[in-house]
Amino acid sequence: MKGKFYGIGVGPGDPELLTLKAHRILNEVDIICVPKSKMERDSVALNIIKSLLNTEKTIVELHMPMIRDTEVLEQEWQKGAATVASYLNKGQDVAFITIGDAMLYSTYSYLMARVKDIDPEFEIITIPGVTSFAASAAALNVPLAEGEERLAIVPSIEDPQRLPEVLTQFPNVVLMKVTPHFNEIVDILEQHNLKEKAVLISRCSTEAQLCERNLDNLKGTTPDYLSLILIKQQGEWLK
Description:
The protein has helices spanning 20-26, 44-49, 70-88, 107-118, 132-140, 163-169, 182-191; strands spanning 4-9, 31-36, 58-63, 94-98, 123-127, 151-154, 172-176, 198-202, 210-212, 227-232. The chain is an alpha/beta fold. The strands form 2 sheets. A 5-stranded parallel beta sheet has the order 3-2-4-1-5, sandwiched between helices. The N and C termini lie far apart (58 Å).
């Protein structure tokens, strides 16, 4: 019997936002794989679930660098998949944990595909998680969108000068991974009279959560890499 491979979204940071199903499976599997980048001293995903594990687990770190070199990334995804497959072939169940949701801009999707390539017969089960932007909207008590309003989720802004195009088409916008271009993003929002319609949220749902409604207070700084900006062009929601 081969083991099962689970992809588990563990949410934005608060362990209590983990689903009941995710909690159960994490305590049933033999192996828990965690993504680890050189930027992190500790795995954010692992820190979320540590207090929820009823027994000691075998934790396996998979190197998933935060880079854009596709060749290097492919090598790491294949190495990670081979590691997962080695446990599955021994009949051990494996869970790969990822912050937020497992199927939204997650390394898990690439790893899952390569595990399938190794053996299409592996049983793969994905457990969804709470996204950072859903948790941020809840923290602000502000709906992401209402009625027939459109919502854009932008994973990263490599060229902030393209932001006005998005803002023209969508009244509600979530900008993720804003740290590298934060100051330029704020300048563009100011140029379009939208700075007062935006709020930055960092480390949502954790003790370190920051909700900054005045983006000028952060100008010249580098926000935490787990930060996003929520923009709502309609309504008086910031009051």
